[in-house]
Automatic annotation (TrEMBL):
Binding site for ATP: 107, 147, 152-158, 182-185, 190, 213, 267-268
Domain ATP-grasp: 111-297
Originating species: Acidiphilium rubrum
The UniProt record lists the keyword Transmembrane helix: no
Subunit-level organization: Homodimer.
GO molecular function: 5-(carboxyamino)imidazole ribonucleotide synthase activity; ATP binding; metal ion binding; phosphoribosylaminoimidazole carboxylase activity
Biological-process GO terms, alphabetical: 'de novo' IMP biosynthetic process
EC main group: ligase
Name of this chain's protein: N5-carboxyaminoimidazole ribonucleotide synthase
Length: 379
């Protein structure tokens, strides 16, 4: 089938989580059907899609059948094997392309790419042995963060090394090897930018947002980030440059640290919709999910503008989701539930957006007041 995909074409989405769910909802509004590939029965995305292939990510026969039943393939889950990616890409257009997924799957490839694109990161070094770790500590210094290169998320697969004595234990605990050592960034804040880019090279970036984490899981996103607009624009320009260097077709998030000297350091890239973009569903004419689907389907990309400022609060684990009845009864809290039936500790179960007039994002007290029943301990 040719691009742009016409209504009723089928978009294959690899992964069945909430990012797939919200992408499928955006796709439905544009008249597309979604076919979800997931190993999880009753996955959040399957609940809102017309078809699901229920199979493991390494089930090559299932991947082939899936590819042959869709018009284009995209991802909400990045960790498909290289072989699986090839099987998909031989059969249908994969957007973003397999090369981009391979870079984002591996922290060493990712940091190498970012630096080559002229984007600053924390100092880093690959670590395959204790001797290499000692050498890396000697150059990078302490504290430093040792991470697995693959399959990390929500801070899993990382250890902070504060003193030389902690190095050996951290090395032993983290698997599989190789690892990567990164200098610890004593950041003033964390922020991110979401970029969409079409096959014609046209791109657009949402405003830079600030992300605050709790227990290594995203807790709050403030849109726009409440700091110097010049810094916000610089982060946007860096994210757009990264998208161009990758020849991205699709949507991508770039996570950054702002250090104490006001310098921007890239942390990681995610070639898919991102938790820090969930505010765009309610605060923008076209959300990150709509831009994702538009880029994948070859439709024109509207500008990634917002009509409102916003705060997004994640609902994580049983204690947050227990507030659901009060949340849906609250004026001004815009609720999003992911349809997950098991409310495990640390699991992202939904989020809430609150909107403010453009340019009127309040300070801490105003945000706490707007979050109402969710404000305990915030921001
Ligand atoms: N080099 C670093 N210096 C300081 N904090 C870090 C560093 N790397 C990671 N972190 C903290 O841990 C969080 C998760 O790390 P990240 O590299 O984004 O992995 P993932 O999101 O894949 O779990 C970051 O958002 C940040 O809060
Ligand atoms: Mg991260």
């Amino acid at each position: 089938m040719n691009f742009p995909l016409p209504p009723n074409a089928t978009i294959g989405i690899v992964g069945g989580g909430q990012l797939g769910r919200m992408s499928a909802m955006a796709a439905a509004r544009l008249g597309y059907r979604c076919h979800i590939f997931t190993p999880e029965p009753d996955a959040p995305a399957s609940q809102v899609a017309s078809l699901t292939t229920l199979a493991d990510y390494d089930d090559n026969a299932a991947l082939i059948r899936f590819a042959e039943s869709v018009d284009v393939i995209t991802f909400e889950f990045e960790n498909v094997s290289a072989e699986g990616l090839d099987l998909l890409a031989e059969r249908r257009p994969v957007r973003p392309g397999p090369d981009i997924l391979r870079i984002s799957q591996d922290r060493i490839a990712e940091k190498t790419f970012l630096n080559a694109a002229g984007v600053r990161t924390a100092p880093w070094a690959p670590v395959e042995s204790i001797a290499q770790l000692q050498a890396a500590i000697a150059t990078i210094g302490l504290p430093a963060v040792l991470k697995t290169t693959r399959l990390g998320y929500d801070g899993k697969g990382q250890a902070l090394i504060r003193t030389a004595g902690e190095a050996e234990m951290a090395f032993a605990l983290l698997n599989p090897k190789p690892l990567i050592l990164e200098g610890f960034v004593d950041f003033a804040c964390e922020c991110s930018v979401i970029v969409a880019r079409g096959a014609d090279g046209a791109s657009t970036a949402f405003d830079t947002v600030e992300n605050r984490h709790r227990d290594h899981i995203l807790d709050l996103t403030l849109a726009p980030a409440p700091f110097d607009p010049d810094l916000r624009h610089e982060a946007q320009a860096m994210a757009l440059r990264v998208a161009d260097h990758l020849a991205l077709v699709g949507l991508m998030a770039v996570e950054f640290f702002i250090d104490r000297d006001g310098r921007i350091l890239a942390n990681e890239i995610a070639p898919r919709p991102h938790n820090s973009g969930h505010w765009t569903i309610d605060a923008c004419p076209a959300s990150q999910f709509e831009l994702h689907i538009r880029a994948v389907a070859g439709l024109a990309l509207p500008q990634a503008v917002r009509h409102s400022d916003a705060v997004m609060k994640n609902l994580v684990g049983p204690s947050d989701i227990a507030l659901w009845p009060q949340i849906v009864a609250s004026q001004g809290l815009i609720p999003h539930h992911y349809g997950k039936t098991a409310a495990r500790e640390g699991r992202k179960l939904g989020h809430v957006n609150t909107l403010f007039p453009h340019g009127a994002l309040p300070g801490a007290f105003g945000i706490a007041a707007a979050l109402g029943v969710l404000a305990a301990g915030e921001p």
